[in-house]
2-dehydro-3-deoxygluconokinase (Halalkalicoccus paucihalophilus), 1902 residues
Amino acid sequence: MTDLVTFGETMIRLSPPGNERLETTTELEVRAAGAESNVAVAAARLGADTVWTSKLPDSPLGRRVTSELESYGLETAPVLSDEGRQGTYYIEFAGEPRGTDVIYDRADAAVTSAHAEELPTERIREAEWFYTSGITPALSETLEETTETLLWTARDAGTKTAFDLNYRSKLWSPEEAREVLEGLFEDVDVLVTAVRDAENVLGAEGDREAIARGLAEEHGFETVVLTLGAEGALACHEGEITRQSTFETETHDPIGTGDAFVGAFLAKRIAGGDIGGALEYGAATAALKRTIPGDIAVVTPEEVGGVIEAAESGISR
Amino acid sequence: MTDLVTFGETMIRLSPPGNERLETTTELEVRAAGAESNVAVAAARLGADTVWTSKLPDSPLGRRVTSELESYGLETAPVLSDEGRQGTYYIEFAGEPRGTDVIYDRADAAVTSAHAEELPTERIREAEWFYTSGITPALSETLEETTETLLWTARDAGTKTAFDLNYRSKLWSPEEAREVLEGLFEDVDVLVTAVRDAENVLGAEGDREAIARGLAEEHGFETVVLTLGAEGALACHEGEITRQSTFETETHDPIGTGDAFVGAFLAKRIAGGDIGGALEYGAATAALKRTIPGDIAVVTPEEVGGVIEAAESGISR
Amino acid sequence: MTDLVTFGETMIRLSPPGNERLETTTELEVRAAGAESNVAVAAARLGADTVWTSKLPDSPLGRRVTSELESYGLETAPVLSDEGRQGTYYIEFAGEPRGTDVIYDRADAAVTSAHAEELPTERIREAEWFYTSGITPALSETLEETTETLLWTARDAGTKTAFDLNYRSKLWSPEEAREVLEGLFEDVDVLVTAVRDAENVLGAEGDREAIARGLAEEHGFETVVLTLGAEGALACHEGEITRQSTFETETHDPIGTGDAFVGAFLAKRIAGGDIGGALEYGAATAALKRTIPGDIAVVTPEEVGGVIEAAESGISR
Amino acid sequence: MTDLVTFGETMIRLSPPGNERLETTTELEVRAAGAESNVAVAAARLGADTVWTSKLPDSPLGRRVTSELESYGLETAPVLSDEGRQGTYYIEFAGEPRGTDVIYDRADAAVTSAHAEELPTERIREAEWFYTSGITPALSETLEETTETLLWTARDAGTKTAFDLNYRSKLWSPEEAREVLEGLFEDVDVLVTAVRDAENVLGAEGDREAIARGLAEEHGFETVVLTLGAEGALACHEGEITRQSTFETETHDPIGTGDAFVGAFLAKRIAGGDIGGALEYGAATAALKRTIPGDIAVVTPEEVGGVIEAAESGISR
Amino acid sequence: MTDLVTFGETMIRLSPPGNERLETTTELEVRAAGAESNVAVAAARLGADTVWTSKLPDSPLGRRVTSELESYGLETAPVLSDEGRQGTYYIEFAGEPRGTDVIYDRADAAVTSAHAEELPTERIREAEWFYTSGITPALSETLEETTETLLWTARDAGTKTAFDLNYRSKLWSPEEAREVLEGLFEDVDVLVTAVRDAENVLGAEGDREAIARGLAEEHGFETVVLTLGAEGALACHEGEITRQSTFETETHDPIGTGDAFVGAFLAKRIAGGDIGGALEYGAATAALKRTIPGDIAVVTPEEVGGVIEAAESGISR
Amino acid sequence: MTDLVTFGETMIRLSPPGNERLETTTELEVRAAGAESNVAVAAARLGADTVWTSKLPDSPLGRRVTSELESYGLETAPVLSDEGRQGTYYIEFAGEPRGTDVIYDRADAAVTSAHAEELPTERIREAEWFYTSGITPALSETLEETTETLLWTARDAGTKTAFDLNYRSKLWSPEEAREVLEGLFEDVDVLVTAVRDAENVLGAEGDREAIARGLAEEHGFETVVLTLGAEGALACHEGEITRQSTFETETHDPIGTGDAFVGAFLAKRIAGGDIGGALEYGAATAALKRTIPGDIAVVTPEEVGGVIEAAESGISR
């Protein structure tokens, strides 16, 4: 039996080496990147039997995506299509005050036309968990409908559902996002969201504990996980609050930190861990991710365990 | 006064290093590439006062294109837009039997919405020559209309027009191409076309001389230049036939050979050369281009002259 | 049901870029390489449901191997071990007269201690075909025994067995090889061998047809495939001779040509192809392989089909 | 009308990648670099109609310089010469205590023989501003004379003149510098100098305000800008003092920080900004420059504006 | 006369670029690395007439080692052998919490069979100093014996001996190490050891001064140098204690810091420096080393002197 | 005793990767290159006890040269100087008709001021052979005198002298060269020259045999070796003619072919080989050189022997 199915867009990420500018670079580094496959790889590497599904162009570019994801040990089950592009994004890294700059080039990606009927929904029905994020319904009207159908399908089959709000201002406004996302929440068991998105998009108010409790009550979530950036995370699970601070890390590439957190959180929950253990596992994996180039947490359970142990023993490695 | 204005799409070309496959590459080389800017750079470097115009996204990717073109000494005059993507193409190089593989990702490029009114048409009216190719009207209905307007504008102002048929089977069928292109020919003075496109697209028949003469007569072209691949080129100019063989070359990157030929041909015509001299200049520049990575003929007049001299003296350099 | 199981060592291949020398290089390119995984990837990409098994160190180096193999779409089922090294080989590429130079550093690799009992023999029993090569028994006494057991296990279960002689003079002498290999042949259905190895190692004599027939008769092989280098291949299948010439190719990296041939041959046989079709499919895949960096034929069925069609139509692509 | 003309040497900068040492590197990164072209690019990118002039060898190396400068959108107007080398400098980057090491190899560069008569002085006469720096007269006796002539030409035509003291101890002693530079000051409107050069070379004394006022009074400068390293800058303009602190930055490549400051300062002054606004604009551009590899501030007005806004709003981007 | 002979294994170090993981890298950087050659290069570059000896495979890989060592100006005198591998190690660099990961692949290296008789012992006898480290006897029983013989040989000839404890937990246990090492100490004049190894391996107790004094007294060392990580070093020489703090440094590659310290310490002692001067010279060289990629301190006496002067003058360069 | 001393300039060679143009490259590959050190390395690697001397700047660039030469196993004995530059040359590789383009930037190199008195002439006096080439006296008047002195010194001490004419049209005219070189010939035992230089510079006439005989007689050379490009070489030794054809080779980098020939020729002569054997050894080494990037023949005696054997046995490796 599959532990976890995730669904969403995976792009090709193109970045100049070092601190070079996109305007002048003669070379781009190529990697696969997407919230739902980032989560899937982290979960798979940490012990969950995971499969990622999506819709990709039947081309070397589509194969570039699955090739990399499979290299991390993930099972992929994409639909291949002769229509639609391979979505890409360009990212230029720099320190402050220049900061990191992202240009999305994902319009008309093959995945934007993905209907639930063409996707391997039986894998979702048979799985323990299903995961997608708020990026998916934002990509097209078709995907809005597909996301709804997949979440309903999972619920209907007794598959638990986890959802990361993942608000992207380049895709829609807070108002548009709120309307669509709140319509999806009835089929969601576990909501993960940055606290600022809870405020800006969902209109949550009050201190963090109040926000978590409020969301859980309003939408009937079994679990709400608020991510707090440098301050860690806070969960409200069946009415109980748990807090988790971050682990110290020297950041090499911050992209994908949240996805690493969620993937590890789910892997630990699937393995029977309690909320506190899952938050800690997520935070340790997130700290490791930040040392690794690319969007994806190429880690091992031993490494994550080592981070937790080292912190507990108060000894820096 | 400007000698030559060219108009058309310039893409970002992305290619894996060496013989690597797109499916597995971790790196892409980045270059600017487009028939009309390829022609413009070749002409500019060989002495013609040339300007290239187009429509580009107002982004680091759009600037990547002008940055590279300006680096070759070309004047660029693009319209910048907040709408539309930067077109790209992926190219994987290999010897036979694998061959070179191209994936276009140019749909919805900013240029596809370029209207004549927003372009610097006064530059065309003041110029001696205007050049575009059959790729341009194939990209969108708007561009079909724009191409027609620009050719008419040139003619109206006494600017000579050169047009490379440049048939691309990934953009339209021979029938679609023929209908549109023949509509444009009344405003074209110089037609350049591969002989096989003359046959497949325009339905030309007979031997090469007959094809060149036939096209010239049917559409009233002052000059028809047929490119013949390894066999060189043949021109029918005011009823007179001139032939040009190719110069020997060791091919490193064949893309852009035809554009190098046209750019050099036009530069020589602008400088007062006769048809035979212009064909020879084009063929020598094309031979140099094949030794240079990228779509663009980064050459000097001295180098082109040297190729011609060396061949004449029968001495290999 | 699995179509094909292969077993053997996969090394990490380390090669200086371009024509650089090992003695002076500051950089090495890293790839996974091994006859049995080369065959497995080729077969898997060409449609056969294939799994590769071996024994690897439980380390980042062992994972480097599976990571790359999985990236090509192959299922891997290695045993992981805390004992034994990751085998490597260094390869320096150059044209003649320097030639290509190989340094094996594979002694005490984890795989050399692999016993049949720890390997997934049930996968072999359930599969249609099993494949290994003459490199495997040459690596250690344990592997000599394991090879024998696996071939017997396959036969016992009705799984067909294919075996590539793959003589390596750095591993054993022709005499040692002959003694061991001939002991294995009773459980082999399909023997593939370079004709010069048939002569030097097995003592075969006569013209090629006679050699193929002789080997088939002597050891009761259903099929003998002789590879003839630039002259192609020749098979004796159930007493009938079939010949196949090579396809023209521009060689970028010749390593793994034979493995690409065998993988494609087996994929076509598994798909129901006759011997002639399988030889042709193998030869076309081998031609493509030579254009691809690394040991492995990263190809698609469409590409292999295209090579055959192009050759049939007499048209170079 | 041209806003700004700059004149000075541009070198080819050669640097080992990463922290590698010149003594052992197998590779050098290549960039164009020179105080006056650094200033020119910064000014041009920030809206000033700028042209850079110099004397370069008529060779691929000379073209390497203009090629890169034009790629940033700068107009170049160099004199080309068959005499004289292309100046280069080698730079090895490292953290403390090794520090950054520079080796100049600029003797006998083509520019050292540049006479005012061969330079496009009409461009200077027609421009609003002219800029050069104290490096230029230090390079040769000819250039000492040329610098004097150009500054006089500018003044004579009503073109404002800006001059950065830019003392280089590898080129001359403080005493030699003082004698030459003070002779030039009568034709300078705006002097920029590091405070330590004002002290060491010009013998200025007192606190910073006193130094700025003193220089302005002594030489009749309209504006004196003292750069203070990490403490920012201080200007005395028509007797009034303005201070500017630095913006926070994560330094990737510090070379060219001062030139970025000056280029942006001039662009803002040309656009009508007051001294305070110009200092702020300069400081923000300098902060961005430090995140960019190479000597040159490849920035946009939007980026510079964004740095200022972010600092004002107290929000880190 | 030779100032210093060192003996020990030099490996080929293979590291992914940047922060990449071994599991997924496509490229490895190649360098020579080994405690005793690290020490030898540092000493040689700082003025000591130094020769390094070892046993290497007679292959391009063995030559890769000597090639790099000779490039730093070191004299090498290895025995070449047709038996035994070239030892390698893989190192993956990352910040915390991932940390730096090392995989040794040095078993059965040619050096493990090196007997004293085949080594150039006359060079040791004629030298002023001999140096090896605790890694050497840990590599094989043969090397345990060889180390003992070489130290005895040196002593017997009046050559001073220096020994770095260099405990490696991947090679042996503290107990095994202690037994072997204490047997060697009677022929050692100068012991260098990290204080934590003194405690864990040798069972030293008390504060640092007590540990140094205790070791000196127990084993009759003329000098004991304790390295204290970020806290610097402490020496007990003929009963007198000297302390040395570290110099500030921006770490690029920390590997080999201790060896740089020892090499410079010995060079200064050989040049007649006192213990305090030698410790300071060692600490300054160690600080420089940390800015340099690779295991080896590619420095000059001018640079080391510059670090000391800059610190004394309180002026950061 | 030293077998061979060579004296001459070694430059830093800077070349764009692949077929890139100098005008647009962002990267240069760095190598040491110079006729006399090329010869010295080839001779040293093939068994001759060789030392190269020259004058270099006392800088990281000067050390870059010795570092690389020592890495090939050559002993270097340069004089270090605070005056004079490090000579460089830029080389752009391409196939025909573009061809390979060289830009020398060697004026005022430190070596141009080298006087015989500061060079290690005692090494020449003690050596069996001394070698320099016609490039050396062309570099400066000082070097013209120094070359004369060194050749005389060698003769005076009974050291045999070998001299390669190595005419460089960028350094002097044929007439200038002839006058200087013929003045040196009285102290030369072995002259090597391309046949076309013998004709163009020395005015030799007749067929090749006549040219070789004529030069030998006119100047009293013991040996004259004419190199004939693709046709091999021809020697006149003590009146007897020997011919040598070239070995087949796939050219990767042709620079330094002649120096590899000379270095191997001298090594074989030093080892007691006859003229025929030395020519064959030279030709085989030259063939290997062409497969190796850079100016220098990084070869082994086994490889050279292998080339000769393979050719003799008629078997391609």
